[in-house]
Amino acid sequence: MSTLPIEATDSPSVTQSGSHLSRVSSVIAFARREFRDAIASRWFLLYTLAFTVLAVAVSFMSLAGSGSHGFAGFGRTTAGLLNLIMLVVPLMALIAGAGSIAGERERGTLLYLLAQPISRVELLLGKYIGLALALCCSMCVGFGLSAGVLAWRVGGVGISAFVMLVVFTCGLALAMLSVGILLSVISRRSGVATGLGLFAWLILVFLSDLGLMAGTILFKLRVQEVFAIGVMNPLQAFKMAVIVNMNASLDVLGPVGMYASQTFGSALPWVLALVLGVWTIVPLVIALILFSKRGSV
Amino acid sequence: MSVIQTIAALCVLFAAAFGAQAQQSPQSVDEISRLIELADPGSTIVLPAGVYEGNLRIDKSVVLDGQGVVTIDGLGKGTVIELGAGDITLRGLTIRGSGSTVDQEPAGVRAFAGPVIIEHNRFEDVYFGIDLRPAPESIIRNNTIVGKALGPGRRGDGVRLWWSDDCIIVDNVIDGVRDMVFWYSENLTITRNHVRNSRYGLHFMYSHGTTLKNNELTANSVGVYLMYSNEIHLIHNSIVNNRGTSGYGVGLKDCDAITVENNALLANRVGIYIDNSPSSVDSYGLIIDNKIAFNEIGLLATPITHDNVISHNAFVENEEQVTVHGRGQLMLNEFSADGVGNFWSNYSGFDQDGDGIGDFPHAPRSLFRSLLAREPNLQIFLHSPAQQAVDLTARAFPDLSPEPIFVDASPLTRPPELDLFVSSQRGSRVPMIGFAVGLLLVSGVGGWVIAHQPRLPVVSDSDLSQRAFV
Prior knowledge:
By secondary structure, chain A is mainly alpha-helical. Chain A has eleven helices and no strands. Chain B has a 24-stranded parallel sheet that branches. In chain B, strands 4-6-8-11-14-17-20-23-26-29-32-35 form a twelve-stranded parallel sheet.
């Protein structure tokens, strides 16, 4: 926590030139408050429950056919989980992020928060960290039970791929949370923010891929073009990262996957992690700048 | 007195060590040649233990028995042992250090006449392992062959038969070679061999009329590749994890009258690949009672493929169950015989009368797949929600739905009971259990630590915080 990049700002709400330590501790305090609020909220519990139940169900179902010789089926579980994660996790993170600032603003509680001797940057960072921890905890419950099912039914086959699945899912959640918080900062009302969050979800999960599919067919895009455009979508980057960790190459994904494997070689997971990193940091930084400059509450 | 004793003891020790060393120091293979020269044809020569260096040629029918303590080392030059006569037996030898020049194809053992028996030997660091060219009616059993540590493209074959009919090849373990390959060799018995980490596990070229049974083919590029070979019976083999870039569990290229029966084809890139088999007009192919599971593609066939009967198999959780190489359909093949089809883990019909046969034909249609046949680059969208959206759209608007590539008129609703030969892949559970518990602990304990100790240094008035933050 002490390494958080907290910068002094010229925000008018900084009424007290607290020490570096007190800034960190106020970020931590906000993160804790956000975490408590999140895990107490009904929506969040519902998402956690849904994700957990679905993850365990997918694990069970994809192992149902593996029969008595205990062979594999692990790849199937990961593939099944992949679809589930790509639908549920962005939705969870975007909606959680979208509700954060806009909700406080609409309820009027943002005024109280900003009346405290902390900067807007600290407030937003605290909120981000709290929500991120809450999301990761929530997913760890689902993954933990799912791993339990795998250990029981399959044994320890492919554990490293599963660990990477958890890590990259947390990365995806952080990226989507950043986008959600950015949407929240630019929305005056929480209804608008949630709507924007759903729209962003629709675009990232379906529309961009469908558009690229149509483009690939209509314009006969070349492999490098399809890869370059496709990988910009954090969900595709996430999916490729999981598959490359599972299969050691992207041959499963056809010519475009082979191109990616051959071009980047063993650096491919890092390239994909970088995409998720950019999607985490850029929206968050924009949100911090906008929020600290915005006069209205 | 004690000093003398010590010196005496040292002398004894020294002599013993020196003697042992003398016994261990390598001799020339000429020693073996001399023994063979002295022996009568048909006699058994038990070689003294030790290492023999050089290239050996045997032109007399003898039994050479190393009893597991004899090593013949070619010192990295040429073929280690050449057999120029029939009725030679090599037993209990370690054969190592052949040359590695591609043009001369040096081998561990090369036989120019049959029949020979090569059994209970260990081959290490050899370019080719055993090369019969030709040596009909030979027996190769209980050998272990480990290829030279070369890149996959530069290795030689573990076992190669060349015009050698009626050979028996059983219980061999072969690791890290190119192929176990059979050229123009008919009526072979190939049983209980284990080929792993190689290119093609079992490779048939123009070799007809053979039964392959109880073999284990693991982690090769291709498990079994039959090319231009007819009347092959592939039964009760374990074909697992063969995942080369163009890898298959079983590949059938222009072969007539092939039976693929009761095999476990698991976690390969492609379970079975059929390229124009059968190729003759009035021939057939039979694929029955197999478990084809967890492959990326269960069954892949070229569009011209015809006259195969594919029934009573279990197609379980292959990422793609059946697909065509390129565009086209597989309608000229039977996916059910005498009212018995296959089990499909993705069958979406039901069985109202409970006879074990689904009430609707299994005729999967995927718009995404048909788009993929047109535009292979789209495969990057595999496993994404967008892919499912495309298929869902096609189901909602039947006009968009493509023709099915095959129809199974009587799909099984329960997996058939199959007696399979499968090597278990079960690993230790402990790390996975540890990881599961760790994740739950992190979320539980971590969550509790973060959420507890309500401490709000920025707000002193608890009343305000109650109202403001709830």
